[in-house]
């Protein structure tokens, strides 16, 4: 099972087990971080791994870390709408609504990757 699929499996477990949500989300993050470290050792950059990690970090409320990861994915050339959307979620979480809206707008103009996903976002709560 690849890292993205493994991370999604941990997230699915978190969704079904609120009592262990933190542990499952930490495991999802660890799987992606490990895969990114392995990719760096081979000088390979994977924007799908970064975008997925950004979603996991957002869902954990680690917005500053998510911004760093997602901006790295964009610098590496990500054209995935999920990268911009997740960056918007992270910026909204950091109370930067104008920057967040700009990223949500960019996300609308791009296609989503089938590998990645969006972070949870409740616009009514913002």
Structural class assignment = mainly alpha
The gyration radius over C-alpha positions equals 14 Å
What proportion of the residues is helical, as a percent range?
55-70%
Query: Count the strands?
Result: 0
Q: First CA to last CA: what distance?
A: 36 Å
The profile of the biggest β sheet is: none
Number of helices: 6
* Mean of pLDDT: 94
- Beta-strand proportion: under 5%
- Secondary-structure element pattern, one letter each: HHHHHH
Uncertain runs are none
Tell me the overall shape. Answer: globular
Written account of the structure:
By secondary structure, this protein is an all-alpha fold. The protein contains six helices and no strands. Helix 1 runs parallel beside helix 3, helix 3 runs parallel beside helix 5 (81-93) and helix 4 (63-75) packs antiparallel against helix 5. It is globular, with a radius of gyration of 14 Å. 44% of the residues are buried. The mean pLDDT is 94.
Features of the shown structure:
126 residues, mainly alpha, globular
A few lines on this structure:
By secondary structure, the protein is mainly α. The chain is built from 6 helices and no strands. Helix 1 packs parallel to helix 3 and helix 4 runs antiparallel to helix 5.
Outline the fold blueprint.
Blueprint: H1 3-16, H2 21-41, H3 47-59, H4 63-75, H5 81-93, H6 97-108
Helix pairs in contact: 1-2, 1-3, 2-3, 3-4, 3-5, 4-5, 5-6
């Amino acid at each position: 099972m690849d890292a993205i699929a493994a991370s999604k499996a941990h997230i699915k477990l978190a969704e079904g087990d609120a009592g262990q949500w933190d542990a499952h989300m930490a495991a999802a993050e660890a799987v992606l971080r490990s895969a990114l470290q392995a990719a760096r050792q081979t000088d390979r950059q994977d924007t799908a791994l970064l975008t997925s990690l950004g979603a996991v970090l957002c869902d954990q409320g680690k917005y500053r870390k998510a911004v760093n990861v997602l901006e790295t994915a964009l610098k590496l050339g990500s054209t995935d709408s999920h990268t911009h959307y997740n960056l918007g979620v992270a910026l909204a979480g950091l109370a930067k609504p104008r920057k967040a809206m700009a990223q949500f707008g960019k996300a609308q103009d791009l296609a989503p990757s089938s590998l990645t996903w969006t972070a949870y976002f409740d616009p009514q709560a913002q």
